[in-house]
């Protein structure tokens, strides 16, 4: 089973990631405090870290560097709205097994990135990775709903069309 560590200081972001990643059928642990996540990673192995960049006490890059010392094979996906973060990652020596997505990121893009990262590492686990194709942004009332509740306009893995 895929072991996923989620770290962001916003509880609503963690809840959204848990909902978006539910189709992966992985074992997820979520933390709002980077230092708590680091302590947990000292006693439990993870395959994947999904984290934000700006967090109080410890930023995402510092967390990644510390976690990579504990678990060198960890795949990292960082989400941030900062355009210059890629340059900062390179100067701080955090590039191996690292994937960057800009916020906002839809569920399909996040799952597709995870799938690609697992395949690139050569350790894709035999589990359903139900990756949907990227969806174009809805317009009008659907766009308003999507902005307020990310993922609400995307059908879940168990969705089937109604029979008439």
Give an account of the 3D structure.
Helices cover 37% and strands 16% of the residues. It is α/β, with parallel strands linked by helices and 164 residues long. It has one domain: Rossmann fold. The protein has a five-stranded parallel sheet, with helices on both faces. Strand 4 (75-80), helix 4 (85-91) and strand 5 form a beta-alpha-beta unit. The longest helix has 15 residues, at 107-121. It starts with a strand and ends in a 16-residue tail after the last helix. 23% of the residues are buried. Mean pLDDT is 77; it is low at 125-138.
CATH class: Alpha Beta
Global morphology: globular
- Neighbour order of strands in the largest sheet: 2-1-3-4-5
Overall CATH architecture: 3-Layer(aba) Sandwich
Overall number of structural domains? 1
**Mean of residue pLDDT values:** 77
Please estimate the helix content: 25-40%
**Weakly predicted, low-confidence segments:** 125-138
Total helical elements: 6
User: How many DSSP E strands?
Assistant: 5
In this structure, how is the largest beta sheet organized? 5 strands, parallel
| SSE class | alpha/beta
Rounded radius of gyration (Å)? 16 Å
- Give the name of the CATH superfamily: Response regulator
**H-E order:** EHEHEHEHEHH
CATH topology: Rossmann fold
């Amino acid at each position: 089973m895929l072991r996923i560590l989620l770290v962001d200081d916003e509880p609503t972001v963690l809840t959204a990631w848990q909902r978006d990643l539910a189709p992966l059928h992985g074992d997820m642990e979520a933390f709002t405090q980077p230092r708590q996540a680091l302590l947990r990673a000292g006693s439990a192995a993870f395959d994947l870290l999904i984290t934000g960049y700006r967090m109080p006490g410890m930023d995402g890059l510092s967390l990644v560097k510390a976690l990579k010392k504990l678990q060198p094979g960890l795949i990292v996906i960082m989400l941030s709205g900062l355009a210059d973060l890629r340059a900062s990652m390179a100067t701080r020596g955090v590039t191996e097994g690292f994937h960057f997505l800009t916020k906002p990121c839809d569920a399909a893009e996040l799952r597709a990135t995870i799938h690609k990262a697992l395949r690139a590492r050569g350790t894709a686990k035999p589990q359903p990775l139900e990756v949907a194709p990227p969806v174009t942004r809805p317009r009008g009332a659907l766009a308003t709903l999507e902005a307020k509740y990310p993922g609400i306009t995307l059908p879940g893995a168990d969705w089937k069309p109604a029979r008439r």
